[in-house]
Amino acid sequence: MRRMIVLTDGYNDAHTAKTAICVIRYKPEEVVAVLDRESAGKTCTQVMGVGGEIPVVGSLAEAPGANTLLVGIAPPGGKIPEHWRPIVLEAIDRKMTVVSGLHDLLKDNAEFVRAAAEHGVQLVDLRDSDENDVANRRGIREDCLRIHTVADDCSCGKMVVSVELAEGLKRTGVDAAFVATGQTGIMVAGSGCAVDRVIADFVSGAAEKLVLANQHHEVIVVEGQGSLFHPRYSGVTLSLLHGVMPDGLILCYEMGRKAIFGMEDIPLEPPRKVIDFYEYAANIMHPCRVISVAVNGQKFSEREVAAECERVSNELGLPTCDVIRHGPEKLVAAVLRLGKELHKGGIRGLEKAPG
Amino acid sequence: MRRMIVLTDGYNDAHTAKTAICVIRYKPEEVVAVLDRESAGKTCTQVMGVGGEIPVVGSLAEAPGANTLLVGIAPPGGKIPEHWRPIVLEAIDRKMTVVSGLHDLLKDNAEFVRAAAEHGVQLVDLRDSDENDVANRRGIREDCLRIHTVADDCSCGKMVVSVELAEGLKRTGVDAAFVATGQTGIMVAGSGCAVDRVIADFVSGAAEKLVLANQHHEVIVVEGQGSLFHPRYSGVTLSLLHGVMPDGLILCYEMGRKAIFGMEDIPLEPPRKVIDFYEYAANIMHPCRVISVAVNGQKFSEREVAAECERVSNELGLPTCDVIRHGPEKLVAAVLRLGKELHKGGIRGLEKAPG
User: Fold this and answer.
1) What is the pLDDT of residues B288-305, one digit of tens each?
2) CA distance A81 to A10
3) Rounded to an integer, what is the distance from CA B111 to the centroid of its chain?
4) 3-state class of B322 per DSSP?
5) Which helix (H) or strand (E) is A310 found in, with range?
6) CB nearest to A132's CB, from B103, B235, B242
7) Residue A89, in any domain of the structure
8) I need a labelling partner for B32 at 20 to 30 A (CA). Which of A297, A322, B68, B327 fits?
9) Which residues of chain B does A243 touch, with a Cβ-Cβ cutoff of 8 Å?
10) pLDDT tens profile B319-345
């Protein structure tokens, strides 16, 4: 059983600490403590809005029951902060497994590797990949309904929407699966591939393999990455879109955000334009449309989020909700309607579903 | 001085042997012989249509003056053919430098590495990369006119068009540069980055670096890779398009091709649709349009190619030519017009240019 200390030290904002926050949200039973020296003494909920009474501590020594250190941030470029080195080395010294989702692999750090070998400790790089196959378009089971989350930007909640939608589908009796494509999703799902770390030529091949490995389910919800509108990551997004060949897309966005995250002089595009381009790009490979919108309203009040959802729903003619505030039922219904229309996966679930 | 034997053994068709053919076309003074056992005794021109009297030989022993073995093919997935192993090992034994552009890196092959160390021989992987920076959109010199070649498919002549266009611009007095983004282009240009081998998150960053490194020229012609319409490589193409932020695009295609190369059940899209999607995708990041069309008419007669160019030019309203048959002058003129319109690079060249 994994008993984790989640390291966010100095980076506990919602974006940079998204790995930490999602692991705490979906795997709280595995989290013993959060290590963040500035906020030591508080609870996890006080600092990050999730995790209940899980304590925030100032040192590894304060959580002696932990057997794993999770590097819980995802900064642009994915480099490990220099001032974390001694903490990682102390964890290794304490014989803790170290798990990281950074581009900067633990296994490429000679100091960590040497220490881990000395103490018989395992270093786990969630983002490491040896994918080296191109997509082949062979063996795709067309009865499996493929749903994919996309967005106007990175770090706006695609993974959370994907997990909540898959869970919601399961609750209505559908054999659905969440398919992880990033380091955080892999922590939650227990499998997957961090596609942004794969050699560019093999990303759509890696996406296709994830489909092949999961298409025995009626519905798969494949986590999106980046955005077709992101100057840094648009190619990752397109490789994934073309490798997954989704039947339906869920458009995700964060309410109130005006510019590309981390590139404040690049404004976000209006949702209509975002939808048009995704549909255009997806349909090059496979018939597909945006079936629903998921709003991330974390910075706004209940009332403001409800108003936004109604406005967007009217403007775009698509069911719209905030999965954290409202649950995923509107998205679930949109997926079931698409499944029925296409005579695909989810039909059995639809028969079982109430109403 | 490099004196190469180009290895194509068993793979001398125009697509798979494109590295060989382009190196022979643009660096004939460095090529001593082609090694292809089936065609031994013929000339290079007889087998591949370029290279004049360069001999095709059946063994390394027949070209004792060579000091370098170039692996001259680029198969899908980039793996080295098993039956080439003994040839590579013999080259190492002969103390020849081995140069390869395959995904399958020479340096990852323990047998090659051991033999190279033993004989003091250098292994050069053109595709190897340690790029690990994201794009930043800083320091772009807007006076440099950025031209980029794009296509409906891979392996249809984007590199040749890019080289010919840059050379044509130089002949009219423009300070232009060809910027290589693939292994063959790197052999021709002597520098560049094989972007398809870069970790997906860093491809647009690598493209941006190529722009920053070359933007002291008035015009840069950045070689395109893959195609937005290619199930395997579309993400590489989009990363490059968004990293380069071109002002103008040259659409390349191979006359007579009906389907994606190597995926015969996926038909190619009509040029109008191809142009629309490239312009849509490029304009997300930077104002850009397709300014000209380059036809690869290698499988057709002079007359057929001329008719195709006229038909396409009328249909699309764009200057159209086959750079190998007709020279690049129409493309050069289109670039100079764009430079004048945008008050960018090439203006000086335009003043110098005749007519």
Assistant:
1) 999 999 999 999 999 999
2) 10
3) 30
4) coil
5) helix A302-316
6) B103
7) yes
8) B327
9) 231
10) 999 999 999 999 999 999 999 999 887
- C-alpha separations of A269 from A152, A227, A277, B338 in Å: 7, 11, 11, 27
User: Has residue B91 been placed in a domain?
Assistant: yes
Q: Which two tokens stand for residue B258?
A: 């009906």
Interface-testing mutation among B80, B108, B133, B234, with chain A (most A C-beta atoms within 10 A): B234
Residue A138 in domain: no
- pLDDT value, residue B76: 64
Nearest CB partner across the interface for A235, out of B103, B231, B238: B238
How far apart are the CA of B67 and the nearest CA of chain A, in angstroms? 31
Residues B118 and B160 in one domain: no
**Can you give the CATH number for the domain in which B252 is found?**
3.40.50.300
User: Does A216 lie in the same domain as A113?
Assistant: no
Number of domains in chain B: 2
Cβ contact B199–A196 (<8 Å): yes
Residues near B53 by beta carbon (within 8 Å), at least 6 away in sequence: B43, B44, B45
Contact by Cβ (8 Å): A168, A3:
no
Indicate whether A72 and A108 sit together in one domain. yes
A304 falls within a domain: yes
Per residue in B9-26, pLDDT (tens digit) is 988 787 788 899 999 999
Please name the residue of chain B whose CA is at the shortest distance from the CA of residue A195.
B200
Last residue of a domain, one of A94, A125, A156: A125
**CATH number of residue B37's parent domain:** 3.40.50.720
- Residue A45: what pLDDT? 95
- DSSP per residue, B5-29: EEE-TT--STTTTHHHHHHHHH-GG
| One domain for residues A295 and A168 | yes
State the number of CA atoms in the 13 A half-sphere of A37 facing the CB: 8
The enclosing H or E element of B329 equals helix B329-342
Residue A315 belongs to domain spanning: 145-352
Which string of b and e fits B297-317 if b means at least 16 CB within 10 Å? bbebeeeebbebbeebbeebe
In this predicted complex, what is the ipTM?
0.93
Query: Do both A262 and A315 map to the same domain?
Result: yes
Alpha helix locations (H) across A258-301?
271-283
A69 three-class SS: strand
pLDDT digits (tens, 9 = 90+) for B147-162: 999 999 999 999 999 9
Assess whether B314 and B178 both reside in one domain. Answer: yes
Contact list in B for residue A203 (CB cut-off 8 A) is 200, 235
Query: B168-208 pLDDT, tens per residue?
Result: 999 999 999 999 999 999 999 999 999 999 999 999 999 99
